[in-house]
Design a protein that fits this description.
- This protein is an alpha/beta fold.
- The protein has 2 domains: 231 residues, Rossmann fold (3-Layer(aba) Sandwich); 112 residues, Rossmann fold (3-Layer(aba) Sandwich).
- 40% of the residues lie in helices and 19% in strands.
- It has a 7-stranded mixed sheet, sandwiched between helices. The protein has a 5-stranded mixed sheet with strand order 9-11-10-13-14, with helices on both faces.
- Strand 13, helix 12 and strand 14 form a beta-alpha-beta unit.
- Helix 1 runs parallel beside helix 2, helix 3 runs parallel beside helix 5 and helix 10 crosses helix 13.
- The longest helix has 19 residues.
- The radius of gyration is 21 Å and the shape is globular.
- 47% of the residues are buried.
Length: 356
């Protein structure tokens, strides 16, 4: 068993990238994610890797596109405004079916905002923040261990589906320190990269593009991408449940807030309230089926988010009209986060006693 380390979440994500075989990083510093490029700038030279601090976020995402087209494992990272600048490149990568990992340690907004923990990037991440109606898998870790494990998983998903993959965290999960067990990279059967560009001397010409000008080509391409997204929905949904079997109220939260929610749900259980917690780990594909089953048993769902209401829309679409959905949000302000006691009081207000 690997020994336990005491590291930041950002460092854990960088360590996961190294363990996953990533040796190419392109990025630009921005708080609160700068620990990631700091770590990789120190470690990659020891591993014959390439670290480039690009002149901008726009440059860095296009460098990622170019490296990915050559078939190597590569990544970038940023925080909310920087991710906004990367959106055109992410759309191009999705259209060209190029794998790559993008880490967003999100901050508050809109505009410049601040470095407070926020979950207001949900729409941007999950709904395809750039042009063209694409999707990318989005993973939402809630611990230092998951920052490590899900980064490795992100690289595998990227190669399996030929797609960019986003790890969506925030300043809480990125900056906090916890114990980490740096497990070895999982063995997974992944396809060969026969599409990768190899240069002029190759035996065959390989072209990577997102431009399809022939009659009907672009429509066919978009339907093929759509089929891939449907396959992800069938095979790649991840979620976690606590005390949902007999719950009369189902609380759902993702990322760092789910940890506070878990404590509040435990407090509710200790007070005799039948409350459970459902945590989506993949935000796209959203775990609709698992949530619908848990919500159907409870009959009532309370959605908690660090914003004014974003994931709640996907929750409503998942559970259908027969389940009552309520929302409690806390957009960032003055560096404050809701306490377990605050969320416990919210839970009590929304709780409906289960029939005997």
């Amino acid at each position: 068993m690997s020994k336990r380390l005491f590291v930041k979440g950002n460092e854990a994500a960088a360590m996961g990238a190294v363990e996953a075989g990533c040796r190419y990083y392109f990025g630009y510093p921005i708080t609160p994610q700068s620990d990631i490029p700091e770590y990789l700038s120190r470690e990659f030279p020891k591993l014959s890797g390439e670290f480039i601090q690009a002149e901008s976020e726009v440059a860095s995402i296009n460098m990622l596109l170019g490296a990915s087209a050559c078939g190597v494992r590569a990544m970038t990272s940023s925080s909310s405004p920087g991710i906004s600048l990367k959106q055109e490149g992410i759309s191009y990568m999705a259209g060209a079916e190029l794998p790559g990992v993008i880490i967003n340690i999100s901050r508050s907004g809109p505009g410049l905002g601040g470095i407070d923990a926020s979950q207001a990037d949900y729409f941007q991440s999950v709904k395809g923040g750039g042009h063209g109606g694409y999707h990318i898998p989005v993973l939402a870790p809630n611990s230092v261990q998951e920052m490590y494990d899900l980064t490795m998983h992100a690289f595998d998903l990227a190669d399996l589906y030929r797609t960019p993959v986003m790890l969506l965290g925030d300043s809480v999960v990125g900056q906090m320190k916890e114990a980490l067990v740096p497990n070895p990279r999982p063995v997974r059967d992944l396809p060969e990269k026969g599409w990768a560009v190899r240069g002029k001397g190759g035996a065959e010409q390989r072209v990577v593009k997102s431009l399809f000008l022939g009659d009907g080509e672009l429509e066919a391409h978009n339907w093929r991408l759509h089929a891939k997204y449907q396959q992800m929905k069938e095979k790649e949904c991840l979620s976690e449940e606590h005390d949902t079997a007999d719950a009369a109220l189902l609380v759902t939260a993702f990322g760092s807030l789910s940890r506070i929610a878990h404590t509040a749900v435990t407090m509710a259980r200790e007070a005799g309230l039948k409350v459970g917690l459902f945590r989506p780990i993949t935000l796209f594909p959203f775990p609709e089926r698992a949530l619908a089953e848990a919500a159907g048993r409870a009959g009532k769902v309370l959605v908690l988010e660090l914003n004014t209401g974003q994931m709640v829309e996907d929750v409503r679409l998942s559970v259908g009209a027969g389940v009552q959905v309520s929302f409690y949000g806390r957009p960032p302000g003055a560096g404050s986060l809701p306490s377990p006691e605050e969320l416990f009081e919210v839970i009590k207000k929304h709780y409906v006693q289960a029939p005997n």
